[in-house]
Amino acid sequence: PPGRAPPPSLSDDQAARILIAMGHKPRSRAQYRVSASRALFGGKRLKLGNAFTLGLTRSLSRVSLRKKVAPLDEPEEPACTFFLPTLNQAVLESCGHVAVKVKRAGDVNIPASVEYKTVNGSAVSGDDYEEAAGWLEFAAGVVEMEFKVQINDDDRNEEDEHFFVKLITAKGDGGRFVDIKSDAAQARIAIIDDDDAGVLSFACDGDELVVPGSASDSTARIAVQRKQGACGEVSVRYFTEEAGAIAGKQYETTEGTLVFENGQLEGVIEVKILGCESASSGGDRFRLFLAEPQNGAKLDKNRDGGEERNILTVSIGPDVRGKESGLRIKQSLTKSWDKSVIGSANWATQFKEAVLVSGGDDDDEGGGPSIGDYIGHVIACPWKVLFAFVPPTDFCGGWLCFFCALLAIGFVTMMINDMASLLGCTMCISDEITAITFVALGTSLPDTFASMTAAKAEPHADSSVGNVTGSNSVNVFLGLGLPWMFAAIAWAAQSDGVNEKWQSRFQFDPELSWLGAPGSRQQAFVVKAGSLAFSVGVFSSCAVVCIGILAVRRMFCGGELGGAKRSKYASAACLVLLWLLYIALSSWKSLEAGGGGCAK
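The chain above was modelled as a monomer; its predicted structure follows.
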């Protein structure tokens, strides 16, 4: 609004959001895989980005790609070229306007002009900014000019938004040919919302507070502060929990909602301390929680409990000054206890998210869990509960979580392997066919959805293609290499003893001459290749064709993903046919070599 001064300084959160907007980086394969897996089975949604990232993808998909036509003659070199020197800018909503610079290179001594206009992204002209369009007239010798776009400020707490500035056409004086650099013709302007609802936390220093106890009842007034913004009315739920002190005897159970009016920076929670004779001994405590902030407010992530809830440990003692001195010493000796409080809370949250649909998060943009979320949750709930037993990363620097997760993954992999073998046996399908169909499809399905999520969230195809190659690498090197390595070590460690089953299968097998002469072979871990060489050859051939399709798409369609419907569907059909061809040829060779998987 007019007369409103811009903020004198940026908060840590605003500075971080500006840096993100100006330097957007592709997210990791792990983030997209976690997001896809949770979406498949009704888990808690992983927020991969904000509005400007998703809006960027949608906006770029609407911009038609310029067709490349092979020229008959050598193309004319432009006398000068116009370009945008800054392709990513970020401004606060209260800045008033943003200045967009346009430069030119080449022969700058000729008069020329360039047309510009703004394009909506997640920010909408007339609401978030004012549309700008026109021509910049460069006189002879002028290298740089700028135009301004008005940014509209409001008091709404909203997501960061963005729009685009695009150079359209260029004209040279006297018919001289001038052009626009294709890779610097469009810039993204991110609008960082500074109408923050604020961050709520307890006003005291540290995560412990001492209140005086006495033989008579008294009231402890515990302050809650609101910082990094105070726009709009917000609220936060609070409640107490026993931690040594007995509710009803030493303090009164308290719960409710603390409301902050627009611009209010501090609120007070009152807890009644009950008088008792044991107050003189001190050492009793309870916990006060802040949880479920509303209307855009957040909780301080640096306090005990983190962003989900802030925890204040309140000690009841006879002498506040003496108790505070003792607490300072105690804090230096009980850091591990404080950390275990957080770890225990996180561990309990894992079980809550495992049991509840969407992790109990019902306020997503889609309006809550869908029917598909409920179905996926029912199917995957036992596995969610199983993996909830894996400790959180708060213990042992994360190493306990790492090794427990490996054990759990190994257990699930063993079960899937055995179940797939049993399924193949009952359907008279060999292990080779089972591996390239059921097992491969199951291990690749999360990465397929992860690639789809990455394609929607990223302006480039790197993350989508990387998900596929990463999945294959992990499946081969870990899914096969790791178990076979352990098996080879285990067999090599068996220095004595005769395994009758191994002797009957491999001792006189003519295909294993490399193990030695029949009858004198040393026991070792053996996996017969069978039709593996043929299958790998077919797979490699199909992979080369697949890479060729992607290369052709880049040349003629402008990119590996997206484009016109006809080219998209044709490319998808070719890739599916390659997969079916690989399955068909590998299955044919396996059946020809060893028959089905039925017991003889």
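The chain is about 40% helix and 20% strand.
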